[in-house]
Amino acid sequence: MNRDPLAPFEPTPREPFDLARSGHLFRRAGFGGSLADRERAVREGPAKTLERLTGRGPGERVDEFEDLPIVKDDGGASLRAYRIWRMLAGRHRLQERMSHLLHDWFATSLVKVGQLGAMSRQLRLFDQLGLGRFDELLLALCQDPAMIRWLDNDSNVAGRPNENLARELFELFALGRGQGYTEHDIQEAARALTGWTVKDQRFRVEHRRHDDGTKQILGARGAFDGEDLVRITAERPESARFVARKLLAFFVHPEPADDEIEALAARYRAFGRDLGATLRVLLTSRLFFSERAYRSRIKDPVDLVVGTVRNLGATASPMDLGSEALGMGLGIGEPPSVEGWAQERAWLTSATWLRRANFAGRLAQGAFHCDPAPRAVLDGGTPTERAEHAVALLLDSRIGEPSRARLDAFLRTPAAHDDAALLHAVMLLPEAQLL
Amino acid sequence: MPTIRPALALACLLLGDPGATGQTPAPDQERNPASPTSARPTDLPAGTVAWIAWHDGARVVDALEALTTAPDLPARVRLALGLARAAAVGATGGMRLEELAHTLSPGRAMLGLTIPPGSDRPRPFLIAEQDGGDREGLDKLLDRLPSDVARVHDDRYLVISDDMAFANQLRSDILPTPKDEAGDGPLLRGAITAAALQRTPPQREPGGVFFLGPLQAAFADAAGLDFTLDLGAEGIRLAATLHGTPLGRGALSALLPHADQPRVVPPRPEGTLASLSLDRSLAHLLRARDDLLRAGEAAQLGGGLTIADALSGGSFVEGILAALDEPFTLFVVAHEPQDNGALEPRLFDLPGFVLVAPLRDPEDQRAPELMQRAFGNLMLADGARRRQQELPSFVTRKLRGPGDVEMLVGEPIDWRGPEPWPVETTISPTLSVAFGHVVLASTVEGTRRALQALCDAASEPGHRADTVVGDHAELDPAALAAMLERNADLLVFDEVMKKGLAPAKARRNLDDLFGVLRGLGPLHIAVEPGPTTTRMVLELEVAR
User: Fold this and answer.
1) Is B109:B132 a contact under the CB 8 Å cutoff?
2) What is the pLDDT of residue B117?
3) Residue B27: which of B541, B484, B533, B419 has the closest Cα?
4) At residue B24, does pLDDT exceed 60?
5) Distance separating alpha carbons of residues A72 and A249, to the nearest angstrom
6) Euclidean distance between CA atoms A225 and A367, whole angstroms
7) If phi over 0 gives left and psi between -120 and 50 gives alpha, with beta otherwise, what is residue B500?
């Protein structure tokens, strides 16, 4: 038997590529999808489906508003709405997922950056480079005006280095806390980044403020600048493991095993640090479709609001959904700290649970400009038949015994004849909170 | 009045209503809404609070057809109207609208609302004369009505309501009124009784009192309101007479400083999309706030006035507002895209909002000084806040405008971002006092245009200023469409983000809206108080 955790998943009668696995692929790699899309995926198989979720033709525009700057002074509501709209309506599902991960990974907040245009451009940078080479992405982020403002590199000048960007580059962006670097490395890395600043909202190198002396960084010695720093950092083996862990935790399981990390890091190195190529291996692997991965994560608020609408095969107001996600604790453009959002169980508190339940109830009633109205998507038939349809739409036709018992109990009440109440009941099952 | 009067006179000629010329109707011409009106088939049932009557259903259909086939209507809108007609045909078992009108109300008809004694629920009803109607067709039509719709019909009358007992009672109570020769009269005639007018809740918040307070005072003991509606290929005209007046109504009357007397309105700046001229005393509202407003809102307003006093260094109400004469006229002036040279294009072509008010004493020096101080301090305070939040800020400077008059301008700093200018940089708050007027505008361009119009009027020998009575609003839909079209990308974006529409669909919807707006001529709304009645007119021409 092949012991490589990243060996390709081959459907068998015992482990078919069924509605559950198709739903898993759509949730993890594409914010969910309509039942028709998921059923088509079952017919076409995982490789073809992933191709659909990934592809954008050469020269194809990202979206209709690609050239329209989002600089409306509305507290970030338009920016949140635009990002949600891309997740809802965009054709490039995997790219959107990757951008969502990167916004948490390289968490930058509008609250400090202050300029909506700069924040918007950082998020577009994720769209453009998120499935490309990691070292190119890292360099672009070190030169990104929002990041420079966020981590104070505009005050990092020769003779008075500011270590914020250098520290986070090692600790949070590329190597991981305590992974192969020292405080001295951070100080030297900060020197390499001196003079990288922002002028008229564009990246600029102020050479007279750059420290062009010799530095020793991660064992290498030279008159390094920021580009050298990024190259040296990205080439480190710790960086490959760090990137592999990030991808595994987001796409597969929140606590990846060491052998899984090593296997993915090896692929990543072999692909020349190409994130897209690495992901394609991961998302078609036995590991990805394993029982260990299925519903192993808790949906963050964006997964919940976007995924539910997409699974219903509907559209809804991006402005409203962005606002709902904000109310549940995830304000796009406003992560709470440089470490991003606390994930998994941290999403579920008594307050956010109430908000999630109310969201489900209102959506089922047709709020948020949801079109078609959710109650209209259930086929006719008995309450039991409609409940099965709702479980297929929202929960891969797969729920556990406790949930089955709860649903059966609901079906014995008069409310079961109300499609909105029925959908709400299904959306409140524990499985609906799992990714 | 050169601008408004010709439109009224034209409408008067077209629609045949002598009252439209603005002349006070002779006493015997005034209509009492409680008295029988010959267009309707019967006296009013007890408890009727509002009704609309017509004397030929087919004529109503013809008029609608004429309006909806205006040549400039977008194809999609015409298609939608066609589909609606087709749906009506389907719902009536193949009956065309004209046939439907003939079958349902071949003669006089009345649609009304009653509130039965002891009830609070309005009850709708329809009474239609059946003389000469298609009895067989009517039976077929009535068969298609939902079973819970109560209907009573015989050779003479059809009565429809939501309650069978009520419909029967209506039929038995019908007292036929004599027929008139109303063929050339208004298309629709209607009335709202005093009882219904008095049900409108009182306005107590500042905006409601300022805009609607006087009208509501007139409602309070008006004898009723009657109206006529005419529509056709030329446009729509809704004319109403309220049999009551806001004059002599205590504190609220003082909100109308010129009462029923004509007053001069400032000349229209070039590129005006819309204007609103209000004969309303803001100073009186603020002085009498404890009597006119809710306690909490009056207190909040008082707090705001304290800040306004501090900003102006004097009394905002007595030093500034009391120095201004009414009317206050707001002009919405289109922004004309200009070649900004090296500057990047603006993100949004926001129109200028220009408020113009005459000074009571053109020689007054003190009030302009207080205004300029308040303006400068406001710019300074707002600039500090915006800089703190790293938003584009404004710098105050003096510029020269038409007639070499001084303008105090809050100019946006040059935008150097990679994107086009954000929305706030399309604003340049401006204050100017010249030609006996105060001009306060959201853009320097708007101020320049208002000053140019005032300057031209002042320098024109024998210039006759326009005068109006009461409140007037005008809108140029085609110009508005042109302005909106320049911002179409942003409007599409907003629609998509707010409603989740596909971008192509949002753009189609907007194109339809622009098409409808382009197909419309000027809209004019007037509310004119008189000694015993209040006259209200809405006129909308269709572009030809």
Assistant:
1) no
2) 76
3) B533
4) no
5) 35
6) 53
7) left
Q: In sequence order, what DSSP letters do the residues of A226-241 get, joined into one string? A: HHHHHHHHHHSHHHHH
- List helix spans (H) across A375-427: 383-395, 401-411, 419-427
User: Could you report the per-residue pLDDT of A332-341, keeping only the tens digit for each?
Assistant: 999 999 999 9
Cα radius of gyration rounded to whole Å, chain A: 23
Q: Identify all chain B residues contacting A200, using CB atoms and an 8 Å cutoff.
A: 416-418
Q: Which two tokens stand for residue B465?
A: 């200023």
Question: Rounded to 5, what percent of chain A is helix, strand, coil?
Answer: 55, 5, 35
Q: Which residues contact A409 (CB under 8 A, 6 or more apart)?
A: none
Give the chain A residue nearest B499 (alpha carbons).
A317
Q: Poorest-confidence range of A27-41, A125-139, B503-517?
A: B503-517
In whole angstroms, what is the distance from residue B54 CA to residue B76 CA? 30
The per-residue b/e assignment along A187-213, b for 16 or more CB within 10 angstroms, e otherwise, is bbbbbbbbbbbbeebeeeeeeebbbee
Cis omega before residue B327 (within 30°)? yes
Of B180, B177, B134, B182, whose CA–CA distance to B158 is shortest?
A: B134
Supply angle C-alpha A327, A329, A330, rounded to 5: 100
B419 touches chain A (CB under 8 A): yes
pLDDT digits (tens, 9 = 90+) for A400-428: 999 999 999 999 999 999 999 999 999 99
Tell me the residue type at A342. A
Q: What's the CA gap between A195 and A277, in Å, rounded?
A: 34
Please state, in angstroms and as integers, the Cα–Cα distance from residue A431 to each residue in A256, A350, A391, B148, following that order. 21, 18, 10, 45
Q: What is the ipTM of this complex?
A: 0.91
Residue A81: closest CA among chain B residues belongs to which residue? B497
Query: What residues of chain A lie within 8 A of the CB of B387, using their CB?
Result: none
- Name the nearest CA neighbour of A278 among A232, A243, A249, A253: A243
- What is the CB neighbour count within 10 angstroms for residue B135? 12
pLDDT in tens, B386-421: 777 666 778 899 999 999 999 999 987 766 666 666
Q: How far apart are CA B275 and CA B293, in angstroms?
A: 27
Q: How far is residue A366's CA from residue A374's CA, in Å, rounded to a whole number?
A: 6
Sketch the domain layout of chain B as residue ranges.
40-184, 235-542
Task: Report the candidate in B276, B230, B185, B265 with the shortest Cα–Cα distance to residue B541.
Answer: B230
Tell me how crowded residue B381 is: count the other CB atoms within 10 A of its CB: 12
Question: Across-strand partners of B394?
Answer: B412
CB B270 within 8 A of CB B449: yes
Phi-psi region of A340 (alpha: psi -120 to 50; beta: other; left: phi over 0): left
pLDDT tens string A23-53: 999 999 999 999 999 999 999 999 999 999 9
Query: What is the C-alpha to C-alpha distance for residues A370 and A314, in angstroms, rounded to an integer?
Result: 6
Q: Is the pLDDT of residue B2 over 50?
A: no
Return the pLDDT at B406. 94
Q: Amino acid identity, residue B228? A: T
CA dihedral for A386, A392, A395, A398, sign (positive or negative)? positive
Q: Which of B198, B200, B199 is nearest to B223 (CA)?
A: B198
Residues from chain B contacting residue A64 (CB–CB below 8 Å): 492, 503
DSSP state, B420?
S
Amino acid type, B306: T
Residue of A65, A66, A71 for testing the chain B interface, max B β-carbons within 10 Å: A71
pLDDT of B3 over the 60 cut: no
Quote the DSSP letter at residue B252.
G
A85–B498: do the CB atoms touch at under 8 Å? Answer: no
With CA atoms as reference, report the closest residue to A136 among A230, A204, A238, A247: A230
CB B65 within 8 A of CB B107: no
Residue with tokens 């739409």, as numbered in its chain: A393
Structure confidence at residue B102 as a pLDDT band (50, 70, 90): confident
Residue whose pair of structure tokens reads 């919940």 in the numeric block: A304
